[in-house]
Request: fold
Amino acid sequence: MTLAGQPSRSTDDSLSQIAAGAGRFFGSAVRIEDIVREDDLRGTVLRECAWLTPEIALKWDAIERSPGSFQFGPMDSLLAFAAAQGMRLHGHTLLWHGGIPAWAESALVTQKNWGLIQRYFEAVLGRYRSTITQWDVINEPIETGYRMDGLRGSVFLQAFGPDYIPRALNEARRLAPGAELIINEFALETEDRVENDRRYLFLKLLERLKRAGVPLDGVGLQAHLDLSKGQFRADIYAQFLRNIADLGLFIVITELDVKEHDYIQSVEQRDRQVADATARYLDVALAQSAVRGVTTWGLSDRHSWLQVTPADLARYPGGWRDGSSPGVNRGLPFDTAMRRKPMYHTIANALHHRA
Ligand code: XIL
Reply:
């Protein structure tokens, strides 16, 4: 299933070209099956992206479905595609509470056996350490309202205590000494009690790790923006980014997209709101020179993990009675027909500016 014979790509007039002009990168999360099947997606990925993130293929539950038996097929195909086109890969992700195979979930809690993690890290980093040189070693470690240190009560925490984070980072450094190691986190943008706490607790975690000399090079900020949430305060977010940068960490925006809220408006209004939220966010994020680039969580609304939910529809009793439909969530730069939307142009504008 490799597409290595593709003609070499042209990135003229594209987000990756604009980003490169400002010393940054643009990329997207992808699934290799979609790239193989859909010519228009493949063309858009080739034109727009310098970096790719495997949306699924590297997660533990995709890689090691039964103990000790590893399935590298989809990741190898994506790697061959990216390598043939000179694209870089972002290693997403090693430890994530949402991507643990069921067998490991119970084994970790009952056996507390670090050897399971070591075997998995050795397999994945052993195979990809020379081709994937940037890893989300820890994904989404923060959860408020649970512990003073703000760590999520994941099976990793239950099995190994808070030490699982330095341990995983040390293990990753040992197995892939040349790789950049990242902690990736979500829900840090909004000005409300929960996200204020999350920013504070996340910074405290980063500070503790750096102070202890744990190998940590960068931070991934997912940036799943959400129009149902409260205010985004530019000054507060800029300070948050400065605090991360002051710890000597680089920053990547890893999973940008926008969950809509008001599906009853016209498509033009909806697209404008998505674009405005993107602009508000990126104008602040890209003013910080530690931010190396932006990855969106998919390119087109056709592939988005974000759905219009029954709860969304229930907010509009009588809505779409004429038989029309709100369609899909429109939170990515391209529509389902792979046409550029206003969000595309706001990303392009924001990327133009060098920090
Ligand atoms: C999501 C994928 O997009 C879905 O297809 C999958 O079912 C679940 O995971 N934060 C992350 C990503 O770090 O790995 C998640 O990706 C989205 C939220």
